[in-house]
Write a structure and sequence with these properties.
Helices cover 27% and strands 26% of the residues. The radius of gyration is 22 Å and the shape is globular. The strands form four sheets. A five-stranded mixed sheet has the order 1-2-3-7-9. Strands 6-5-4-8 form a four-stranded mixed sheet. A three-stranded antiparallel sheet has the order 12-14-13. The longest helix has 16 residues. It has 286 residues and is an alpha+beta fold.
Length: 286
């Protein structure tokens, strides 16, 4: 959620920076080449003068970026945690993105954009391979990029070629990603306003923190279980984490097409209906 919030902020500043020029922005570009590689780029900006790749970070705390080994080291509340280096991530993405596009005339620029204003970032003790910007520096950085147009180039065609190469992003469930046993998760219905747990009082779920009735939030809780535990679940798994859930509670989701069912009555499995289309956020078309 923090990452998504940071990316929304970047979109706002991109609109400001690109207000007076023709540009197309692709948000959350993902491509997977089977048995080869996969890349994910937060923003790709196409103009008649350049292509700009942006990696967005919304991490708070004290941040140290080190070169060898390449790591991001975050210290917060006395706890030190190592994360993937954004410079290394961007370098890899640029390399594979160039392979993906093949021969094309536009120069490619990059930047790491930090959207959390409370982060304290130590200046890297090495020559950073990519500019590191706070969010409000983004418009100024974009204005410093070259404006000379490349003649005889169809940028709209390049954008379409890039879109055609995109593939749907398959999100690994959180328990698998962080090696957590699903049995360690706390059961119950979660309030989607304050993210506290609710209790059942006379057939009505009430949040123990904000006191709102959250029966209508059952749908979101059901979908969250897929993201936490797995993409294909039996009814007993839902009942393990959401007490009193019955199969009839899933009917609305089935009828709306958000989840699918497979198998017979005894071995029935439920799964989220996979997306069949990549959704783009495009600011301005050529």
């Amino acid at each position: 959620m923090a990452g998504q919030d940071g990316e929304k902020k970047v979109l706002s500043f991109l609109r400001e920076a690109l207000h007076h020029q023709s540009a197309t922005v692709l948000h959350d570009f993902h491509v997977r080449i089977p048995n080869a590689y996969a890349i994910q780029i937060d923003f790709i900006v196409f103009t008649k003068s350049y292509i700009l790749l942006l990696e967005v970070k919304n991490i708070k705390g004290s941040i140290r970026l080190q070169h060898s080994p390449a790591q991001l080291v975050r210290t917060m509340n006395g706890v030190t945690q190592a994360m993937d280096c954004p410079f290394t991530q961007m370098t890899r993405n640029v390399l594979q993105f160039k392979k993906l596009l093949g021969n094309q005339q536009l120069p490619i620029y990059t930047a790491i954009v930090w959207t959390n204003r409370s982060a304290v970032i130590e200046p890297p003790l090495f020559d950073a391979p990519h500019p590191l910007l706070f969010l409000k520096q983004l418009p100024g950085f974009i204005s410093s990029l070259p404006t000379d147009e490349v003649n005889g180039l169809s940028v709209s065609r390049l954008v379409k070629q890039t879109q055609m190469k995109a593939t749907l992003f398959r999100q690994i469930n959180l328990c698998e990603r962080y090696a957590i046993n699903p049995l360690e998760l706390t059961g119950g219905l979660q309030c989607m306003n304050c993210y506290s747990l609710a209790r059942l009082f006379e057939k009505s779920w009430v949040c123990m923190k904000c006191k709102c009735r959250i029966n209508t939030m059952l749908t979101e809780n059901i979908c969250l279980l897929f993201h936490f535990v797995g993409e294909e679940l039996p009814l007993r798994t839902f009942q393990q984490f959401i007490p009193s859930l019955r199969s009839r509670n899933l009917k609305e989701l089935i009828l709306s097409g958000r989840i699918q069912i497979s198998g017979n009555r005894r071995g029935r499995l439920y799964r989220l209906n996979p997306k069949t289309k990549v959704n783009w956020v495009e600011l301005t078309n050529f």
